[in-house]
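Researcher: Predict the fold of Methyltransferase domain-containing protein.
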Amino acid sequence: MVIPELSRSISQDDLLKLLGVAREWLDTAPGRWLLDSERAVMRQEMSACFGQHLVQYGLAAELLDSERSVLRHHWQLDLLAGPLALPAEETQWPFAPHSLDAVVLHHGLDFCLSPRSLLREASQAVRAGGHLLVFGFNPWSSWGVNHFAGREWFSEAGFVSPARLTDWLELLGFAVEKRVDGCYLPPLKSQAWLHRLGRIDALGQRHQLPGGGFYFLLARRQTLGATPRRQRGMAFPALSLPPLVAGNRRAHKRNK
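Model: Structure tokens for Methyltransferase domain-containing protein follow.
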């Protein structure tokens, strides 16, 4: 699949195509390596979360291992309908404000029309004391080179820096409790080379060096933060999902 040339903006249709290309990439050697690394982080960090209600949104529809999760009820939201996912707009989630114990954004901010709008929507759904778990691509890494150099789908992904995201979270009433980095090698297409250079990645993981290809932020809601929208009825209303509508975002490199 070929990503269309995008000059100044990206439409909803182009975003869906971009998301499809990136999900196909997850079946390649570097894609599987990324998911394996991120699943390992999830298994370790989910123990900090508590409660019963969790929602996942983003690139991989099945990042969580439900058998290892400490939260009982899971929902998956997606821009596309699927066998396990509920279709929803990035700024119209079918949950009342402050009704969820945890929200996982798996590269959701990297594949959206407006990262700040999506983060605001996700944060509003988290109750006081609940957690927001965010995976993102690190622009200040070997993976970020592909982003700024305009290579493949990396050029149109968001690549919001962890420092900027931390600032946004603080404005929304969250405190970042932990950061984890991973994937210290470039996204090499050869499984053999990924294996040969595995010691470099292991060294970075062991010492949590800066410059990993992805980062993970665990943030806990301290206050109610931004004023929530009007209550939509019950804590978990009937999931009347709005249709996807056209939108656009500027496709500039956010961290230049």
